Amino acid sequence: MPRREPPATESLRSVIGAGPSSDPFFRALRPLDLLPADQTLAALLRGVVVENVLPAVPPASARILFADLAQPSGTLPSPMVANLPVRLLLGAALTVACKSGPPTLPPNPQTEAPLGVDLAPEHIRRGSTVGAAQGVDTDRPDGRVRGAVLRHRDAIRECYERVLPASPDAAGRVDVSFVVETSGHIFDAAAETDAPALRQTRECVLAILRPLHIDGIQHPMRVTFPLMFENPPLALTIPEMLVFPRMHVAGSDSVAAVVHAGSGSLTPDEVAAVLSLHTTDHRACYVPLLRERATRRAEGSARFILSVGPDGAVGDVSLGPLDDSVRSSGECHLNLLRATQFRATGQRATIAVTIAMRPQEEPTPPPAHLR
Hints:
Number of domains: 3
CATH class of the largest domain: Alpha Beta
Low-confidence stretches: 44-51, 56-66, 68-82
Order of helices and strands: HHHHHHEEHHEEHEEEHHHEEHE
Helix content: 25-40%
Shape: elongated
Largest sheet: 5 strands, mixed
CATH topology of the largest domain: TolA/TonB C-terminal domain
Mean pLDDT: 78
Strand content: 15-25%
């Protein structure tokens, strides 16, 4: 009786016979039809599959199907022999699929074009304590965006103030732009500025904006938001500085303690304390008038505007209203004020100073006929 081939071999021969001869995969398997039954699996193991079939199956996932056929052993475990035809069929299908190229994917659905939204400029002033998002209408989409950004107004102002110690006069505009999707996330955030000193501020602001999430966005928006960073001089008005011949002048030690204890911006009290260090000198500008017969009862005031630089030095002094009776003392006071040195704060300041000059501490009463 002729020996019956194992089921696996019969199945393999049927698969090979059914395959088209034009296909490289099946053409590589065709020699197996000519081998005796007991040599079919060995040939498949050693030559055809390992050397011809596997290179014809490009995907890594298909090559795994035949990985255990490349074992050095000459015998095949029975479970592997049983499913060998299935492996070959699957490998053939994968080969055909790879030759046919990647599947054609449907086009992505069209996304809604972002609406252009130009927000009004936001003015951020050095040292400003304006509340975040005050007066913003968050019922409108643009208001929601503005409100979400201005909730971080203090952090944005700090981005600006960090550059001021190195660049005391830094100021200008940073134009921020970004896209808000309906998910509320921000994409394509960018910022531009013409002020070189604000480049660090620009990057700091972008780091704040990129992680933001804005709720209630129904349509995507492309937003432009100008930020105006302002650095106006600090404006201070000092209480009237009184000088008269017999006044008591405070000790310089106590005044110096007030000055050295200061920090941050100049304050009216600190400026008044610094000016009081020169009270004796200002009094000396006035007292000589009282020695002259024509001006022995001279009484009046002079107003000065001081421009103070970031280093605390007085750069310019302008003379304001000056009473005629004490006009000759004006130049003396002006020179003293020019030489005054304040604490360096990194900020410019304008200081209004009024010096009142009297023969005595209290104002002279008007003549009887004018009462």
